[in-house]
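ok, trying the design again with the full structure, not the truncated one.
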């Protein structure tokens, strides 16, 4: 008879495969990040670059020049032969007077025929058209009319000069009969065809009332057909030197008093110059007197001009104002920080709670900013009420006793938000210039959140 065998079943514990465990953890991590990605709003970013912001002030300036009004010697019909703003040499014919009107009418008739324009003139006009087309800005459409009027005057006066030459025999006869007079420039200068009563105003005799545009009147000369003796025929500007007077506040005058040169920008065409200046006080008001030696002909038709004074320029890292936010931090005295373990990073010894009396835990909080006496830390590794033990001392400090706010931006280089402190140098209504090389701060080419008000520390960023 066979022996009966007793089989004893052994109960084994749960046998886990480490590979499966790791796989499950990875799946959970991927699902968590996927959910975070799908439920998060995309964050617009901005790459920090180098930039400059100027602190500027715009003033309405009065232009003063060395101007001479030239009066007509006779009464009669007038024709002009130089364009407005042209440079005249001594003995260049500027205009003519015809007392009878007959020769003046012939000159006008011949001048109306564009066939008399030579190749050189046509090439010059073509070149001017190309320059205007390449520099045209649709935001200043009025410049089209200004250019049209200037070009029309140039062509009219060129044609008039050609007509004067073609009618040489008639001109000669009229001159002998004392009915036609060719008027030449007695001095070299720039010819303009308007008067406004400011020709004798200087930097010494000006008045505050002369800055009032409401009282300004301008008399155009080149559109007149007839003149009376001893009335203005044209105006000659005798020097390239000119001045612009700007009325400024006492505070601005105080700010400018220690300098000799300033950078200016003409608002009309964005032209910039660095020029010497002086300050003048008259009748209790302050004026900046800009002294210029170039570019006068650019504004020969202007008596008033808007000028921007570039008082100061700051260069640094340029960031949009929308990225700037504030965050509150604990400020902990530096004397309570210590170094421990294998790290040189400053840490804090936090006293453990009841039940483990006398023991401490070393934490190494992220430092966001420092002053001579304090480090700025957040609540990532400490909480308000935690007691910090001073190394080799009985002194303690309670977290939250001192707090302060820092101005900064959120760096998103690593896919999550990290607050970075900034040191503001200057700003306008759109951008801010911050100092470079700031400890714990933002750096060139960093990517920051464009809207700092919608970001929180350590927030995952969906770009």
């Amino acid at each position: 008879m066979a022996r009966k065998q007793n089989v004893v079943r052994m109960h084994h514990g749960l046998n886990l495969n480490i590979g499966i465990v790791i796989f499950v953890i990875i799946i959970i991590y991927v699902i968590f990040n996927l959910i975070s990605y799908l439920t998060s709003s995309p964050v617009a970013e901005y790459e920090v670059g180098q930039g400059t912001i100027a602190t500027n002030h715009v003033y309405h300036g009065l232009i003063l020049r060395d101007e001479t009004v030239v009066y007509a010697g006779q009464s009669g019909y007038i024709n002009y032969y130089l364009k407005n703003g042209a440079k005249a040499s001594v003995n260049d014919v500027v205009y003519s007077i015809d007392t009878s009107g007959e020769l003046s009418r012939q000159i006008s008739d011949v001048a109306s025929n564009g066939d008399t324009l030579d190749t050189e003139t046509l090439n010059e006009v073509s070149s001017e058209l190309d320059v205007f087309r390449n520099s045209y800005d649709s935001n200043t459409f009025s410049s089209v009319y200004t250019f049209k009027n200037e070009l029309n005057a140039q062509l009219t006066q060129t044609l008039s000069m050609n007509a004067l030459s073609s009618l040489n025999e008639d001109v000669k006869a009229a001159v002998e009969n004392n009915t036609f007079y060719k008027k030449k420039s007695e001095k070299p200068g720039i010819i303009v065809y308007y008067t406004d009563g400011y020709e004798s105003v200087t930097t010494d005799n000006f008045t505050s009332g002369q800055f009032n545009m409401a009282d300004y009147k301008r008399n155009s000369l080149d559109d007149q057909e007839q003149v009376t003796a001893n009335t203005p025929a044209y105006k000659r500007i005798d020097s390239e030197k000119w001045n612009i007077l700007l009325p400024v506040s006492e505070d601005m005058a105080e700010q400018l008093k220690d300098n000799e040169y300033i950078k200016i920008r003409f608002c009309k065409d964005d032209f910039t110059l660095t020029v010497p200046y002086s300050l003048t006080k008259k009748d209790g008001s302050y004026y900046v007197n800009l002294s210029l030696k170039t570019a006068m002909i650019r504004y020969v038709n202007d008596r008033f001009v808007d000028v921007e004074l570039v008082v100061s320029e700051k260069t640094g890292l340029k960031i949009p104002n929308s990225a700037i936010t504030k965050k509150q931090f604990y400020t902990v005295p530096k004397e309570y920080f210590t170094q421990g373990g294998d790290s040189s990073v400053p840490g804090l010894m936090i006293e453990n709670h009841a039940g483990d009396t006398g023991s401490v835990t070393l934490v190494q909080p992220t430092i966001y900013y420092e002053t001579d006496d304090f480090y700025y830390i957040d609540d990532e590794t400490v909480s308000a009420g935690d007691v910090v033990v001073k190394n080799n001392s009985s002194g303690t400090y309670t977290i939250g006793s001192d707090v302060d706010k820092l101005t900064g931006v959120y760096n998103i280089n690593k896919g999550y938000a990290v607050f970075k402190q900034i040191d503001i140098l200057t700003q306008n209504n759109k951008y801010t210039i911050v100092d470079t090389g700031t400890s714990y701060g933002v750096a060139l080419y960093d990517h920051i959140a464009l809207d700092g008000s919608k970001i929180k520390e350590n927030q995952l960023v969906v770009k």
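Keeping the full-length input from now on. The chain has two domains: 58-315, 324-454.
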